[in-house]
């Protein structure tokens, strides 16, 4: 059986991205960490980390061991916290995955405040638009934006907010272009997500619907890119309210046809049931939910 203390060292080294960083964070000499990793590799009979003075890379077998080791440590931490009770100060790592726009516009200003308020919590944020297997890859929290319902799974799902898509453009672009109804958009240029897309289905505040077709001017499959294109004056973009609200407040963008929206998008927080019981995960999840709920108001 592998030495569980050495397995914990391995997980900590991977979490920190290297022996030097783990040494500084844990207050353990680099030589000690390196020695314990070597012992673990001898016990496992396989190389877990390819490491030189300039490179640190976890092997494929190391990735598998890391996922299982992380899950084991989560269970051990949960058991310890049962003993310590709910008054124990939240501590340990919390791994979060979110899309790039959510990370940039929502989590980037929020997570440092959480880290300062809870210095014993180590936050690890993965900003990625790729598919993430939350359980297999060992994440504690996932934040997902989705148009339809999420598939049923063993994961805990909590919908945080539902927000509208707004049509926006820069004041310079809109100057001299009076817009009274969706038909007026036909002569304007649109910033779309997918090549070939030329129109949006709009819904009015009184429940009516219509289709607005624009002249394609720019395509980007990422919201932040469309936001920058709109502020640069390329045309009209269709963005979630939370993504463009700040630019509207500063005057970089203006809302087009305020009585109309282009559908809705949901934001949900997802986490494995067992990890959601850890005080560190629970406090971070609660603060993210509180922040996103305030954004909705």
Low-confidence stretches: none
Number of strands: 14
Global mean pLDDT: 87
How does the major sheet shape up? 9 strands, mixed
What overall form do the CA principal axes indicate?
elongated
Number of helices: 10
Q: What is the beta-strand fraction?
A: 25-35%
Structure class: alpha/beta
List the helices and strands in order.
HHHEEHEHEHEEHEEEEHEHEEEH
- N-end to C-end Cα span: 53 Å
Secondary structure: helix percent: 40-55%
Supply Rg. 24 Å
Describe the structure in your own words.
The chain has helices at 4-16, 19-26, 30-44, 60-84, 100-117, 134-137, 171-174, 223-231, 241-250, 279-296; strands at 49-51, 56-58, 92-98, 121-127, 141-146, 156-169, 189-192, 199-204, 209-213, 215-219, 236-240, 254-256, 260-261, 264-271. It is an alpha/beta fold.
Descriptive terms for the model:
three-stranded antiparallel beta sheet, 14 strands, alpha/beta, 297 residues
Short note summarizing the structure:
By secondary structure, this protein is of the alpha/beta class.
Q: What topology does this entry show?
A:
Blueprint: H1 4-16, H2 19-26, H3 30-44, E1 49-51, E2 56-58, H4 60-84, E3 92-98, H5 100-117, E4 121-127, H6 134-137, E5 141-146, E6 156-169, H7 171-174, E7 189-192, E8 199-204, E9 209-213, E10 215-219, H8 223-231, E11 236-240, H9 241-250, E12 254-256, E13 260-261, E14 264-271, H10 279-296
Parallel strand pairs: 3-4, 3-5, 7-10, 7-11
Antiparallel strand pairs: 1-2, 5-14, 6-11, 6-12, 6-14, 8-9, 8-13
Helix pairs in contact: 1-2, 1-3, 1-4, 5-10
């Amino acid at each position: 059986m592998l030495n569980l203390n050495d397995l914990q060292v391995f997980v900590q080294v991977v979490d920190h991205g290297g022996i030097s960083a783990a040494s500084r964070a844990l207050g353990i000499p680099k030589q000690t960490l390196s020695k314990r990793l070597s012992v673990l590799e001898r016990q496992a009979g396989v190389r877990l980390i390819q490491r030189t003075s300039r490179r640190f890379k976890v092997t494929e077998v190391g990735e598998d061991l890391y996922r299982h080791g992380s899950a084991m440590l989560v269970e051990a931490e949960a058991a310890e916290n049962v003993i310590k009770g709910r008054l124990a100060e939240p501590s340990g790592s919390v791994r979060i995955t979110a899309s790039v726009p959510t990370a940039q516009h929502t989590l980037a200003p929020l997570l440092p405040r959480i880290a300062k308020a809870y210095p014993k919590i180590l936050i690890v944020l993965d900003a990625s638009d790729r598919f993430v297997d939350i359980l297999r890859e060992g994440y504690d929290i996932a934040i997902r934006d989705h148009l339809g319902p999420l598939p049923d799974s063993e994961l805990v799902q909590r919908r945080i907010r539902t927000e509208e898509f707004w049509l926006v453009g820069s004041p310079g672009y809109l100057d001299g272009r009076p817009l009274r109804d969706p038909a007026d958009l036909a002569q304007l240029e649109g910033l779309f997500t997918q090549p070939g897309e030329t129109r949006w289905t709009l819904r009015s505040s009184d429940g009516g619907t219509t289709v607005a077709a624009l002249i394609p001017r720019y395509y980007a499959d990422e919201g932040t890119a469309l936001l920058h294109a709109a502020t640069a004056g390329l045309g009209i973009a269709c963005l979630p309210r939370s993504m463009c609200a700040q630019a509207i407040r500063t005057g970089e963008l203006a809302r087009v046809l305020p009585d109309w929206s282009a559908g809705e998008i949901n934001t949900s927080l997802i986490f494995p049931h067992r990890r959601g019981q850890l005080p560190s995960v629970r406090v971070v999840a609660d603060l993210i939910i509180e922040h996103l709920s305030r954004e909705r108001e």
